C-alpha cells in the first residue's frame, strides 16, 4: 500500500556544535534546512502582482456586494403589474410606470421588478405591455432584480488568509473594491556561477565545460517558490569569492544566494573559507547522500543564507532539491513537501551510510531508476518524472521507496492510498 512518507529530525546534535558529529542524512538535512529558516514578512502588492501568491491577510467585503439593487436582465424597470407608461430612465417610478434598464443597471426607486425585453412589447405611443407569450410570473415583485448584498454582506470574509491566489480570487478582490492586498513575500535568490573553465556558448574545447546552470537556475528558483535576484559569474580565486559573497547587489538584497562549485575541500575550493572570513557560519556541511554530498548551507551575519552546490550538474540539482526546496518553502511559509512511498520497479544495491538520490520514471505505478545519471550527467534527469531517495540498505523490486517530484514535473499522476490518482502533494 502507498503511504505518505514522513521523516523526523534524528540528528544527534546542533549543526553549530563544535563536537565531532556525523554528516546528516538526506532526510535530516531536508528537515534541518526547513527549520533553519522562518517565513518572510508579508508585502503589499497590486492585484495584478498577487496572482500565484499566498494571501496573508483576509480580503473582506468593504460593503454589500452588490452594494445596490441591480437588474439581472436587459429590459424595463416596472412598478406594478402593468400595462405601464414609459418614462425617463433612472428616475423614480410611480405605480404604472416603467423605464428602460440594462443588465447591471441601478434599479430606480419605486421599481417592483424588471421585465426582460423578451417578455414585453413597447408601442410607438410610449406604452409597455406583457407579450402574449411571456412566461407566467414575469411581472411579480422582485423578478429579475439582484438585491443589494446578494453575493456578500459588508464585513464578510471573501478570501481567507492562506489562500493561494488564482485569477478568480483577484477578480473577486477587485469587485470588492480592493486595489492592494497583503501576500507572503517570496524569497529573493541570487546566483553566483563559478569556474574559469566554464563557457557560456558553443561547444567547449578540451579542458572547458559548457555552463549547465546559468540557463536553468532562475527557472528552477521560480518553480521552487523563489524570486530570481540576478546572476553573477566569477572565476576560481579566493578574492573573487570574497567579493561575490561579501557584496550586496544594488537594489533589493537577496535573501538567499546560491553558488555553484567550490564546495570541495581542495586548495582551489573557497566556499567555506569565504563564509568564515565574512563572519558567517556553516549550518550544514556535507550530507550523507550521493550525488551531491559536498553541498553546504551557510548563513552570513546580515541574515542571508548561502547554499553551496557542487560543481557537477546532477549533483548540484539533487543538492538544490535537498537544501534549496525546504529552505525556500520555509521562507515562503509553505509546508515541507513529503516524499511518497511508491513501489520500486528494480533491485537497488545497498550503499552503507548514504542515501542515493536517483532520477526515476513512473511506469504502471512503479518507480524505475533512470539511466545515464552520473553526477556530471543531465540526460537521465531531463526525462525523469521524479527522484527516488534510496535508503542506505538499498531496496528490492516490489518494495516501497520514497519518491519526490521534480519542480518542473509536478503534478504527476500516481496512485494514492485510495487507489485513485492524484497530483504530487503541495
Overall description:
- By secondary structure, the chain is α/β, with parallel strands linked by helices.
- It is 17% helix and 27% strand.
- It has 8 helices and 28 strands.
- It has helices spanning 26-36, 47-50, 167-175, 214-223, 238-246, 271-277, 313-331, 379-382, and strands at 42-46, 59-60, 70-71, 75-78, 84-86, 97-101, 113-116, 120-122, 127-130, 145-146, 157-159, 180-184, 188-193, 198-199, 209-210, 227-233, 256-260, 281-285, 289-290, 296-299, 305-309, 340-344, 355-363, 366-369, 386-390, 400-405, 414-415, 421-422.
- The strands form 8 sheets. A 6-stranded mixed sheet has the order 7-4-6-5-9-8, with no helix packed on it. A 6-stranded mixed sheet has the order 16-13-17-21-20-18, sandwiched between helices.
- Strand 27 and strand 28 form a beta hairpin.
- Helix 1 (26-36) packs across helix 7 (313-331) and helix 5 crosses helix 6 (271-277).
- It is elongated.
- Mean pLDDT is 88; it is low at 1-20 and 412-426.
Distance between the termini: 21 Å
* Main sheet overview: 6 strands, mixed
Tell me roughly what share of residues is in helical segments: 10-25%
Give the rounded overall mean pLDDT.
88
For the structure shown, list the relevant keywords.
8 helices; 426 residues; 6-stranded mixed sheet; elongated; disordered C terminus; alpha/beta; disordered N terminus; single chain
Set out the fold topology.
Layout lengths: L25 H11 L5 E5 H4 L8 E2 L9 E2 L3 E4 L5 E3 L10 E5 L11 E4 L3 E3 L4 E4 L14 E2 L10 E3 L7 H9 L4 E5 L3 E6 L4 E2 L9 E2 L3 H10 L3 E7 L4 H9 L9 E5 L10 H7 L3 E5 L3 E2 L5 E4 L5 E5 L3 H19 L8 E5 L10 E9 L2 E4 L9 H4 L3 E5 L9 E6 L8 E2 L5 E2 L4
Parallel strand pairs: 5-6, 13-16, 13-17, 14-15, 17-21, 19-23, 22-24
Antiparallel strand pairs: 1-12, 2-11, 3-10, 4-6, 4-7, 5-9, 8-9, 18-20, 20-21, 22-26, 23-24, 23-25, 25-26, 27-28
Helix pairs in contact: 1-7, 5-6
Amino acid at each position: 500500500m502507498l503511504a505518505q512518507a514522513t521523516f523526523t529530525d534524528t540528528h544527534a546534535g546542533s549543526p553549530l556544535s563544535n563536537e565531532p558529529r556525523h554528516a546528516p542524512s538526506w532526510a535530516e538535512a531536508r528537515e534541518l534546512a526547513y527549520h533553519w529558516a522562518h517565513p518572510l514578512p508579508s508585502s503589499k502588492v497590486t492585484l495584478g502582482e498577487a496572482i500565484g501568491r499566498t494571501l496573508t491577510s483576509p480580503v473582506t467585503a468593504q460593503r454589500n456586494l452588490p452594494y445596490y439593487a441591480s437588474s439581472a436582465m436587459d429590459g424595463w424597470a416596472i412598478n406594478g403589474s402593468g400595462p405601464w407608461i414609459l418614462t425617463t430612465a433612472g428616475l423614480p417610478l410611480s405605480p404604472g410606470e416603467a423605464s428602460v434598464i440594462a443588465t447591471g443597471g441601478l434599479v430606480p426607486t419605486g421599481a417592483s421588478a424588471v421585465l426582460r425585453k423578451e417578455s414585453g412589447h413597447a408601442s410607438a405611443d410610449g406604452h409597455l405591455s406583457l407579450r402574449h407569450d411571456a412566461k407566467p410570473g414575469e411581472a411579480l415583485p422582485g423578478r429579475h432584480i439582484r438585491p443589494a448584498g446578494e453575493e456578500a454582506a459588508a464585513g464578510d470574509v471573501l478570501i481567507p488568509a492562506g489562500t493561494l491566489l488564482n485569477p478568480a480570487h483577484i477578480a473577486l478582490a477587485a469587485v470588492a473594491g480592493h486595489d492592494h492586498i497583503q501576500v507572503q513575500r517570496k524569497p529573493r535568490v541570487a546566483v553566483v556561477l563559478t569556474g574559469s573553465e566554464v563557457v557560456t556558448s558553443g561547444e567547449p574545447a578540451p579542458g572547458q565545460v559548457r555552463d549547465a546552470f546559468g540557463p536553468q537556475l532562475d527557472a528552477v528558483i521560480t518553480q521552487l517558490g523563489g524570486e530570481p535576484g540576478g546572476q553573477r559569474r566569477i572565476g576560481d580565486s579566493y578574492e573573487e569569492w570574497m567579493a561575490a559573497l561579501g557584496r550586496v547587489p544594488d537594489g533589493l538584497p537577496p535573501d538567499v544566494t546560491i553558488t555553484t562549485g567550490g564546495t570541495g575541500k581542495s586548495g582551489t575550493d573557497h566556499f567555506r573559507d569565504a563564509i568564515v572570513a565574512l563572519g558567517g557560519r556553516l549550518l550544514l556541511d556535507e550530507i550523507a547522500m550521493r550525488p551531491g554530498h559536498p553541498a553546504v548551507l551557510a548563513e552570513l551575519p546580515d541574515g542571508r543564507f548561502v547554499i553551496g552546490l557542487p560543481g557537477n550538474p546532477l549533483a548540484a540539482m539533487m543538492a538544490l532539491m535537498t537544501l534549496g526546496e525546504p529552505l525556500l518553502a520555509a521562507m515562503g511559509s509553505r509546508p515541507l513537501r513529503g516524499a511518497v512511498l511508491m513501489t520500486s520497479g528494480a533491485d537497488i544495491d545497498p550503499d552503507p551510510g548514504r542515501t542515493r538520490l536517483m532520477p526515476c520514471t513512473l511506469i504502471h505505478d512503479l518507480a524505475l531508476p533512470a539511466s545515464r545519471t552520473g553526477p556530471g550527467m543531465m540526460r537521465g534527469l531531463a526525462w525523469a518524472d521524479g527522484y527516488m531517495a534510496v535508503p542506505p540498505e538499498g531496496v528490492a523490486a516490489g518494495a516501497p521507496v520514497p519518491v519526490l517530484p521534480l519542480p518542473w514535473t509536478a503534478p504527476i499522476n500516481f496512485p494514492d492510498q485510495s487507489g485513485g490518482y492524484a497530483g504530487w502533494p503541495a
